[in-house]
Automatic annotation (TrEMBL):
UniProt EC number: 2.4.1.109
Origin superkingdom: Eukaryota
Biased composition (Basic and acidic residues): 21-51
A cellular-component GO term for this protein: endoplasmic reticulum membrane
Protein name per Swiss-Prot or TrEMBL: Protein O-mannosyltransferase 1
SUBUNIT field: Interacts with tw/POMT2.
Keyword Transferase: yes
Keywords recorded for this protein, A-Z: Endoplasmic reticulum, Glycosyltransferase, Membrane, Repeat, Transferase, Transmembrane, Transmembrane helix
Known pathway: Protein modification; protein glycosylation
Chief location category: endoplasmic reticulum
């Protein structure tokens, strides 16, 4: 047996000593237990002697005792955030007692909900539904007319109830951000700092006090991400109640954000990334079998699909079920959609004949995109256009956006000279050749090899006038029913979607979408196009009646004075409605580019170059202006830039096997990167690609993620400062700088708070003192007193 080395001898002695020490301690414990045993036995004997004697034949039944332990954790910081949030958001909530900014639109929607009248909006309905529910509970009946920004609410209007939901969501947002940062593994002080920044940002305060959608959008987004991070904590115990609950509630909340505004889809995609990133990390766990990984991935995929789809469709089903009456917005929808509503077009079209026949009087509506009807009038195309091109000088054919007697056309077979409907009716079928005669001028729809007025690459459409020149009529059209598999090969009112193909040139009748000049009364152009299969060549018959007489004067009188008698309702399935509604929402979103004096661009937002005037009192200069806390916005922009620089620095150093921070600190840094920085980017970058009018409030979802990143960056900076070799020189100055920064944020908040509440009067000088940037456009109305002061 070999000799032990000295170091080995020392280790052996230490092990024996520690073992001996442990043994001695065990002996002492055993001695104490043995010494106490006689006393214990004595007490038990005394207790037994005091018990009453029991009959051995009786059963010894003892009541079963169930123990239930409830633990309650009290987080003072979150409670303070909630109290301060309620105080700041609900303070003077009914002031100003006037319509503020987009309350004009959302208030109208709430009123229409109360009346069950259909309205069209390019955003999903959940936010409007929640506000309408609060208004209903508050006793609102929908009688107030939202006429203009600044109009006063009546005294009996439940303004507190209508503004309650946004204010409540604004008060809960700081608490949700607080817990989100705790789930990111950051310190409680850091989480409280983020909540502090949310509480005292003026833009978030302003947006939370009125009938606006952003507070609900932000709350659902943040809370949904918090729930998914809690779900990730349950990865070691899949399929448990907590595992399913956090996943479903998180997806429910994120989908609710999408149902407030479509921009919530950015947060939902971020949530999908969080779930699948966690799934990818489980693949590296060798303790999990392939079957376990596959089954868990399938369960996640099913839940990720089922919860958002079910909630989204359910909300639209509620929306369409409530709004079953026709109103001013239903003209945006197709004829079939309008006919399924009570009143309006439905009261006109329910009694119409179904089959289009020779002699039918019809109005042809463009079925996709802009709402308009094929129209003609006695005016003709100019002989020459400004670009020196010549025209046919025939009668104009346009697409008109309003109901008009000149929208009526008569269907005629080329082989027949009469225009009255005979019995049995001569129904028009798919592939039939027809002529369309304008009802008021009796001229046939025509096309020929002449360039269209605004779209010269297409062919002109007109009503033929015989000038006795070498330009014969070309007025034959073929009916192509594109949905004949669903409605049959007979041309039907409303249901049949048709293309009218010009027989001579094989080009389809098309709505070009372009507007005619003054000579065309600024109506829209109709042309024929060689590309037959496209959405703008699809038409449908909206209004229909049978011609009773061949006399033109009598026909004209019938067209002007005719009234339909409803016989049965027209139905449209939920799936047909929701598909059409989303198509219209898509088209309307792509057609919202317009100038606005307070519009801004994405590059203006990080440094707060522009605000938005929400409301102003014309006599006192009291006003509500959307403007952020510059100390927070500028600090956040610096933090994003610094975080990106640090990321590149750390990655380059790690590539060289140099590790500046611990593994735990890097894990937190990386998680904040994936949630906060990705969240900021995914909510910011899409606005660089859209063509629509943008405002500062579009930046608020990105702002929340910027604040999360800013708070995390402050913790990281203090942690690195504490661990570096010059920590004694750096750490405490940074602490002082941090405290001074918080005080500066509070100071800026107090300075601009009157612009959030709209309760304080301003002189021009006071407003000018708040104009810290030349691009901030506050509304200033000089009173006589201000003029005297300036002089």
């Amino acid at each position: 047996m070999g000799m032990l080395q000295p170091t080995q001898d020392a280790e052996l002695i230490n092990r024996k000593a520690s073992k001996k020490g442990k043994t001695d301690k065990d002996l002492l414990k055993r001695n104490k237990i043995i010494e106490s045993e006689p006393d214990t036995e004595k007490r038990e004997m005394e207790t037994d002697s005091k018990r009453p004697t029991q009959n051995p034949t009786e059963l010894n039944l003892q009541p079963v005792k169930f123990q239930c332990q409830i633990s309650f954790q009290f987080d003072l910081a979150s409670l303070i955030c909630l109290v301060v949030g309620i105080a700041t958001r609900f303070y003077n909530l009914t002031q100003p007692h006037s319509i503020v900014f987009d309350e004009l639109h959302y208030g109208k929607y709430v009123s229409l909900y109360m009346k069950r009248t259909f309205f069209f909006d390019s955003q999903p309905p959940l936010g409007k539904q929640l506000i309408a529910l609060a208004a209903y509970i508050g006793g609102y009946t929908g009688d107030f007319k939202f006429v203009a920004i600044g109009a006063a609410y009546p005294e009996n209007f439940p303004l507190f109830a209508v503004r309650f939901i946004p204010a409540l969501c604004g008060a809960l947002l700081p608490v949700s951000v607080y817990y989100l940062l705790l789930q990111l593994g950051l310190k409680q002080l850091t989480a409280a700092t983020a909540a502090f920044l949310i509480l005292f940002d003026n833009a978030l305060l302003t947006q939370s006090r009125f009938i606006l959608m952003e507070p609900m959008l932000l709350l659902f987004s943040v809370f949904g991400l918090y729930c998914l991070l809690k779900f990730i904590r349950c990865r070691e115990s899949p399929y448990t109640f907590a595992w399913f609950a956090w996943l479903i509630v998180g997806l429910f909340s994120l989908t609710a954000a999408v149902c407030i505004k479509f921009v919530g889809l950015c947060s939902l995609l971020l949530g999908f990334y969080v779930v699948w990133r966690d799934m990818w990390s489980l693949v590296a766990n060798k303790n999990l079998s392939i079957w376990s990984l596959v089954s868990q991935a399938l369960v996640r995929a099913v839940v990720l699909f089922a919860v958002p789809v079910a909630l989204y469709l359910s909300l639209f089903h509620v929306h369409l079920s409530i709004l079953n009456k026709a109103g001013p917005h239903d003209s945006v929808m197709t004829s079939a959609f309008q006919a399924s509503l009570e009143g309006g077009l439905a009261s006109i079209t329910k009694g119409q004949p179904l089959q289009i026949a020779h002699g039918s009087q019809i109005t042809l509506r463009h079925s996709h995109g802009r709402t308009c009807w094929m129209h003609s009038h006695a005016a003709v195309y100019p002989v020459r256009y400004p670009d020196k091109r010549g025209s046919s000088h025939q009668q104009q054919v346009t697409c008109y956006s309003f109901k008009d007697v000149n929208n009526w056309w008569i269907v005629k077979r080329p082989s027949r000279s009469d225009l009255a409907v005979s019995r049995p009716i001569d129904a028009i079928k798919d592939g039939d050749i027809i002529q369309l005669v304008h009802g008021m001028t009796s001229r046939a729809l025509n096309s020929h090899d002449v360039a269209a007025p605004v779209s010269p690459q297409n062919q002109e459409v007109s009503c033929y006038i015989d000038y006795n020149i070498s330009m014969p009529a070309q007025n034959l059209w073929r009916v192509d029913i594109i949905n004949k598999d669903q409605v049959g090969d007979v041309w039907h009112t409303i249901e049949s979607m048709v293309r009218l193909v010009h027989v001579n040139t094989s080009q389809a009748l098309k709505f070009s979408g372009k507007q005619l000049p003054d000579w065309g009364f600024n109506q829209h152009e109709i042309v024929t196009d060689r590309v037959v299969i496209q959405d703008d060549t699809v038409w449908n018959v909206e209004e229909h009646r049978y011609t009773k007489s061949d006399d033109q004067k009598e026909r004209e009188r019938d067209m002007v004075h005719a009234e339909m008698i409803p016989t049965r309702p027209t139905t449209l399935s939920f799936w047909d409605k929701i598909v059409e509604l989303h198509m219209k929402m898509l088209f309307s979103s792509s057609d919202t580019l317009q100038d606005h004096m307070y519009s801004s661009q994405p590059l203006d937002w990080p440094l707060l170059s522009r605000g938005i005037a929400y409301w102003v009192n014309t006599t006192t200069n009291a006003q509500v202006h959307l403007i952020g806390n510059v100390a927070i916005w500028y600090s956040g922009t610096i933090a994003i830039f610094s975080y990106c620089v640090l990321l590149v620095w750390y990655l380059c150093r790690m590539r060289r096997k140099i590790y500046d921070i611990s593994a735990d600190e890097w894990a937190r840094f990386d998680l904040v990167l994936e949630i906060a920085l990705f969240g900021y980017g995914i909510n910011m970058l899409p606005y660089f690609c859209v063509e629509r009018t943008l405002f500062l409030h579009h930046y608020l979802p990105a702002l929340v993620f910027k604040i999360v990143l800013l708070a995390a960056f402050t913790e990281h900076a203090l942690t690195v400062a504490r661990s570096c070799r010059w920590s004694n020189l750096i750490y405490w100055p940074l602490q002082i700088l941090f405290a001074s920064w918080l005080l500066m944020i509070l100071y800026v908040f107090v300075q601009f708070a009157p612009l959030s509440y709209g309760c304080s009067s301003f002189t021009v000088q006071q407003l000018l003192s708040l104009r810290w940037r030349d691009s901030w456009d506050f509304i200033m109305q000089r009173s006589a007193l201000d003029v005297d002061m300036l002089l």
